[in-house]
Give the backbone structure.
Amino acid sequence: MLMHLSTWPEVEQFIARSRTIVVPIGSNEQHGPTGLLGTDWLCPEIIALEAERTADILVAPTFNIGMAQHHLAFAGTISLRPSTFIAAIGDWIRSLTGHGFEKILFLNGHGGNIASIEAAFSEVYADASFAKRRAGYALKLCNWWDLPGVGELAREQFPSGHGAHATPSEIAITQWALPHARKSAHYAPQIAPSGPIREALEFRARYPDGRVGSDPGQATPEKGEALVKLAAQSLAQELDAFSLEPVPA
Amino acid sequence: MLMHLSTWPEVEQFIARSRTIVVPIGSNEQHGPTGLLGTDWLCPEIIALEAERTADILVAPTFNIGMAQHHLAFAGTISLRPSTFIAAIGDWIRSLTGHGFEKILFLNGHGGNIASIEAAFSEVYADASFAKRRAGYALKLCNWWDLPGVGELAREQFPSGHGAHATPSEIAITQWALPHARKSAHYAPQIAPSGPIREALEFRARYPDGRVGSDPGQATPEKGEALVKLAAQSLAQELDAFSLEPVPA
Amino acid sequence: MLMHLSTWPEVEQFIARSRTIVVPIGSNEQHGPTGLLGTDWLCPEIIALEAERTADILVAPTFNIGMAQHHLAFAGTISLRPSTFIAAIGDWIRSLTGHGFEKILFLNGHGGNIASIEAAFSEVYADASFAKRRAGYALKLCNWWDLPGVGELAREQFPSGHGAHATPSEIAITQWALPHARKSAHYAPQIAPSGPIREALEFRARYPDGRVGSDPGQATPEKGEALVKLAAQSLAQELDAFSLEPVPA
Amino acid sequence: MLMHLSTWPEVEQFIARSRTIVVPIGSNEQHGPTGLLGTDWLCPEIIALEAERTADILVAPTFNIGMAQHHLAFAGTISLRPSTFIAAIGDWIRSLTGHGFEKILFLNGHGGNIASIEAAFSEVYADASFAKRRAGYALKLCNWWDLPGVGELAREQFPSGHGAHATPSEIAITQWALPHARKSAHYAPQIAPSGPIREALEFRARYPDGRVGSDPGQATPEKGEALVKLAAQSLAQELDAFSLEPVPA
Amino acid sequence: MLMHLSTWPEVEQFIARSRTIVVPIGSNEQHGPTGLLGTDWLCPEIIALEAERTADILVAPTFNIGMAQHHLAFAGTISLRPSTFIAAIGDWIRSLTGHGFEKILFLNGHGGNIASIEAAFSEVYADASFAKRRAGYALKLCNWWDLPGVGELAREQFPSGHGAHATPSEIAITQWALPHARKSAHYAPQIAPSGPIREALEFRARYPDGRVGSDPGQATPEKGEALVKLAAQSLAQELDAFSLEPVPA
Amino acid sequence: MLMHLSTWPEVEQFIARSRTIVVPIGSNEQHGPTGLLGTDWLCPEIIALEAERTADILVAPTFNIGMAQHHLAFAGTISLRPSTFIAAIGDWIRSLTGHGFEKILFLNGHGGNIASIEAAFSEVYADASFAKRRAGYALKLCNWWDLPGVGELAREQFPSGHGAHATPSEIAITQWALPHARKSAHYAPQIAPSGPIREALEFRARYPDGRVGSDPGQATPEKGEALVKLAAQSLAQELDAFSLEPVPA
């Protein structure tokens, strides 16, 4: 069930049978010469939508702008500051738990989001912790590439040149889901350099075309399909397990 | 051109020929017994995408969560506080103007967003104003129903029972664009009550099924199509005019 | 009854008979070559004080600094950022509702304040809405020129050249109430230009003497008196109606 | 010269001859059974206006709401949180220094404001200090009772029962300036108790009628007049000295 | 009892017999040519530890970074903005009162901290005051040099050249406690100049070697020892008195 | 060189030869029945001080309070909210880089700090990234247990029962450095349970004595000594390498 295509009575009915929801979350940021700017929010959205085709899960709208300050030297990147991102995630969580959701899984598509999302969880939990009361809900961060089996498949598909940004696995997923938006380019070097990630201008100096350690030329829609199918299946299982997880009284 | 389906070099090329961008912005909130929760962000997205089919415009990802505190008593509503919303809009604007965009038009789909969006504009402009320097860019808020001709068409289509929330015009738009997500219900009363809008529980007490002054039963996909086509055409013209607007030196 | 000239026991007694209060709110900002910097907070204060002469209403101290970032290029303008303004309005509201006031009417004298005041209302309401509890109070924004009959009178007095800033109506009001502070100047052009309002330096480039669309030369103390008398009467009626407005339980 | 009764060209002319401005700042809070709620912002306003009658000084609008959380258990008190107060003072300072003012003297009427005003000064200075650049302006806090000679006169007028809140000196000043608003009551005990000041309910428990250590019954308009005349004279001298104070280059 | 060297069950046991805790708080900032950067947090820590040797008191970890924006032009100074400092003090207080502490004494070592600490107290108290509920705890700021008898001793030890920053008394304390870190220098002039304290670059222009009004050359470890012994004794008595202070119900 | 025991001229001299500084950072929080509340800030401080004995490095004061909301149900825990922690880390960084430091290594002792520290880095970098200018400095987070070789040694020393909180390795370090503060207790069960970490009351329900997955009974001062010696050596090498790391121009 897709929340944005449902009515409030339909969501109310869903809550009557399940207190769990998945929020695709990512970033709109440069992904090298051929990766879509939307890659990091499209991937979790694609996986969640695929999972929803066969499982009775509720998918929230996609949180499409994340923490991407280090990509701001490339056109099209939109970033929230960590403090803004944390505040916004907090408002999402307070909105959803106010409706009775007790398990919120953020399916993340951007490594640069991880720290801020975890900080946001602690910021929200702190309301309960300082007040010495139970929060009454549990939050979980799950990167799609960490879903059971997915990392293994990606390593098998791309034994070298997977890299850390504009990876062939994420580009393969968008190639499969959005075939009309497939781009191509000559990569020089074939595998991009690696190194630390700091602020935007230093990033662009280190990584002139935006890629970090990756060779996106290895991506194919077929590999993308395999990743999505497996990830969707794993996601449904994760949501099931999360739903069943007991919360100490 | 859709930003999220483009690469950074493509956006860089666009900026070389135009400094204008449109950001669809809305809200994910209850829309009565038959309106989709995503209605307010889907409508501007639908209109912007329709405009993009024939005009050389750049459409940013949709800002899909807005200021909807008054709808929080209905399941599925997700709201930012005004302060969070203002901070987030500010980060979007700073990201985009950093890339060289000089005209940003927010195509809005939610009346409850208007005050916070305008406050956000002033918050961002204030950086320049306090520092006694030129901002170098212009921001514009445009509600889709205020696009030239659109309000007139809606009044013609729905001479009574248009109302203020869960209106037949916005529901018609989603019916046309997302026919598989069309819902139906018996409305009692046919036209919902009207009155002031304050906080969430009072809102629900006044407007038990979520509608305000509207009879969404009048919506049809055909009326939606007419609204979208006209709005898309007007949007393209607005963007043209905005692009040409001189900024005093 | 003027709050600042009353003691706390007197206010306590007032609350025993009425839960309604009016807060004059405005801005200290340039008003062209002849308008007083205090015009926008003086006008609602003058109207509220006039109303208080005959009606049993409680007038709070005047909130005299508002959101005027666009006027900062003219000497004497003092502005809060929207975020500061919203925080301050929130503290006023929490102070007053803490004493038992249930209806707070902000009588506003500055168009540039509107968005931030409404955003502030939502920010305060959101505390209740996120927590799924009733706020227990109602907030109302009322621009003095929107009081019943006042706009009509102003249009009648100034059929042309009323404009949007440094209007003859607001200047007439201060001429009547503060005759010793009446200023005169040659206006060139007689009616100032109109256009969009953005940041401070652009504003000054567009509107060199600070006026927007107005010819303040039409102002007279007599017209000001008529406006104040009518506005005061309308305000008292608005406060009565607001007091009686039922709040859903 | 009163800023709110001046035009922007008049202020511009003032700045051409002086870069110094005085801002009366106080609080709207309970002042015992007979003190006006506005006492703390009226006193510095009265003194500044008296000084302005004979000296060429510029008086800003009065900052009338301060930090009075400890008085919130008494009706009519309006308080900003320290964080809000600091932000607002910062915006005032940035507005004024943007116009070219280099010396801003805050003439304070409320002891509870002192810490927040000083913290606000440091918050604003910190912008320059972190950036290793000169601020280019100087800020000064001056409590009216600390103006040269004023404390001595008050101690002479009220050798006992002056106290710390709702003092006979401040009440005498409002009696002189606002004779129609003079109140009377039986004080029991004649001199109120003294002690620490913390949060609002504890404050009311310790100080049931709102006074702290004072016997306002000793106030007379004549004593108020003497205080105002002396304070006004001292203020003009302080402003002169502050204007002349060299700022290291 | 030192909190950081205790276990949580030990602290729990302490709370069972006392609800009072002392928090040493200071600053890490330049202290002239011979003063240690840590002087202002070391002094209260040294005094608290000395007091703890003979009294059953609980000493929290030292809050070692305070508000020192005016010292930022000298290497090694680390400063929080007032707003950050206030937020952090608030989190400390909420953490400690959440464990049941009812009396928190901040033993301060830096004059520049005073305003922000007091503002922080009001910020925390305001939560209770706006909500019209009792805080249930009391906060006290105590500068070590204001402990009973200590100021007198310092004036006796250093009748001239004590000054306001990098004072011989604070340097004497660190000389006694940390003899291996004793520094020496030629002071020119012997007694540093005095004057106002504003932002960092102006500070350095006025006070080229960092001292304000002081002659630290008079410091000796013996004088430091006498100050510490007396201050420790006074602190223990202050904590006793604070513990016994009744809080109105 | 320890910053807090140095003078500003000494730090200035250090900066002339090195632009690198290490900041020990941790948390004051429960560490089970025998772990010291200060464990997480003492460990990095102990390691940094050990490294400083033989290497020419500069050690900043210890940032001793971190993000420990999940431990707040145990007495003695003091926590900052993530938002406060991020703001404070930002002020430390801005202070230090203002003095010319170009490489700041945070030596961290608390897993719960990681997300907030990384978010803080991005928050600070974002100032440069949004403004499209180079930051001019590099920030590095290094957990002491991730220093080269240290994790391996700990796994060798504690092949089972190392766990995630109140680990034998961290307790061994404090046993060695602070032998007088060594505590003992009977652990039941010997190895504490493991699981997710969320808010404070849930944490205490899952982990009744505060340990997570650990058997601190295996700690000995000798093991602690070995860990410290190795970690100190690795830290000095990390600082060397970080100092030499080229920053793209």
Summary: The longest helix of chain E spans residues 221-244.
